[in-house]
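call fold(seq) -> tokens
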Amino acid sequence: MVNNDDAFNSSDLEFEAPPEPGAKYGMKSIQSMLKSTFEDRVTSKKEVPGLQSFQSILYGNAAEKVCTPISEVDKQHESIVAVTDHPLSDSVETVPSGDDIVRFFTTITSHMTSMIGHVPRYDTQIRYLNLLIPKLVFEYPEINLSPHECLRISICLKSLLQDGKLTNDPQREAQWVGISLVKRMIVAVAEEAIESRTRSWDVTITKILSIILLGALGARCGDLTLSTGYKNVEYLQWKHIQIKLRPGTEHKLTMRITLRYQKEEKNDPSSNRVVDIDELDLAQDNALCPVKWLLIHALRHGLVQSQSFEDLVYRASRRLDGTVVWTYPEYPVLTSLRKGGVFLQLSKPALSDQLRNTVKYAGLVAGLLALITPHDLRRGCFQDMVRTATGPATSLTDVADIMGHSRSTLQEGTSKKYTNGFQDPRTLEKRIRGATETPGAFDLMTTDIAFKRRRISTEEVITMCESRGLDSRKESERRKVRSQIREQDILKWMEAREDDTIDDAHSQAEQGIVSRPALLSLPANVRNNREDQDENTRNNDGLEDMIDPELTAEDEGDYNHSIVYYFALSNHFYSPGISLNKVSNELVTDLEAALSQNTNLELNENLHAALYPLSESAFEDSSIIPWESDGVQFITFFAEINIVRNARLDRVAAARWADEAKRLANVSTGNSRNLPTPYHYSCTNKKFGCQYHGQSQQDTQKHSKYCKITSEEAANQKYSEKPFKCSSEGCNNILLKVTISTLLMPGTRTYQVGDPGHVLKQAVRKGVKFFVNPGGSLDTY
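ret:
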């Protein structure tokens, strides 16, 4: 047997390595990349120069605690580059050194001011420094700050603090706005909308919704709205809210809100905060129920398929899960206001500044003697939780102890995740019950004399511009000065209220100095045409006397002028059982014909005023909002109310209000909202019993100038007069039957004794009350 050992070489043998576990993992994506090599190379090459030092990407949650993607650190970096390129450095391309940073802070602090106009805060500069250093490392790879240089920078900032160029004083005094003050703000905003004749109830309800969400959730502005620097969907959307029927009830609801974009957690869905809130059952808590306000907003804007609360509950009850379905789940809950403050931009989210302005405004009209910020509502929420001892932190601590979790595990949020985000849906109700009615000695001061914005004249703005060396021809400068004047007015109001005594407050209220005007008498809104509504069953009670006292003057004047004033301001235009639409259409036709043939401006205005009471539904005293009514009635009231002030429609014939195209262009309408109707103004002598209402402010002021009802005795004497019997010689007429179309013919007419027009003129001067017959004629009341 031949020995072939000498011819064998082990190197000739090759063994394949066994396949590695997971060797084919990612093969699909690798093959995809190999197919698009050229495109990927171009894309990646574009990406490298475009890298930016976004804090949320580079430093994670730690940076998000202090800034958003476009943040203060970017401003500081641009500033230090400008300072370095300035005479502080010999070369524009020099990498900033420790001395450059010292010189930067020494220079920049003398050019900065805080929010309240003082020197910058020390801790703010420390925060800037902690973010600026990594930014410089990212921009300048060659930079290398030694421990010596870092210590010099720290000593520099300490020296600036000691020299008074920096301060540790707070920018503003923190306030605690608890749930009781939140209710005060909501009520004040709604009542101010009535008393100051809001241009849009949609805007008013959006403001109230903003306040109640901040107060009920204890959320930050950025948790609900789009913060500066974000451009995507980092805001509360309708799909983040679930509203369901509460088990065991017919129409009581419960809600779950998921806050997906909280501070530090905008890119971490696993850390979402979930809040459960039951619909508040007690009528006294209606104003504080976020469930009700969310549904009111949704009903008004078609964000649900229903146009009434009853139908909404019925649709939810027909679903197995009992859920209210949103028609536009991607829309923001808090929407942006269009310029002019009449319409909402439903698909555009509100910015944080909008919430800050809303809270500030609500605090002023509520009489809070401090400029309130949204974070004050968050502080108040925490304070309420401590008072009621129902906060989730207490229960989580107990759970962590029982389950053996360490304090660090509790602080990291692991214990909270173990509880599956347990929430007590009655927490808000417990906060309300635990709130104290009587404020503490050191709580935020309030006053019943709310702040009233005054009209700032153009002359005042120009004068201040000139005194400050500003160009009054620039709109931006005028706007800045006007804002400063407003801030001064607010501070003066606060100082005056803090010095008030109890006697002063009572005397000012009695003299009518309180900023809130007397509640106006509002026309009942004409409801949408629905199958279950009979136009002949509306209540026409409560019509008040509208006779202009100027007609009772002794001078004869022009007949047409007096008679038109009578129609504009007389009482009881509708008799029971008459179709308001029928009477309205007939009289509108007559009055429009008279307007088209007359060139007298004052007469036209009076005719226009006459047209409004005839083209609207009856008056009723709707100035008292049903705050403590049944929940269904409360929701229905705010979902339907649509009494608005609109100059483009108020100064023209009332037929414009009935023109759908003009309404859509000028006022909000549709969905659960009633057809829009205008406000009416009350006489300043209403407190004595004057029952006059005017369509326009000018008419009301003119009436008040001549109004003779300056005491209760005068009111009793006027409204107790008997029906008029003409005492003119040769005239025995008692009952008047004169058609409106005949009386309102343009031109001057002379009425002889015995003529119905003569009797009507005398009756108007004596204050006779009339009502309109179906044919458009007048009868004594």
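The two ends are 144 Å apart (CA to CA).
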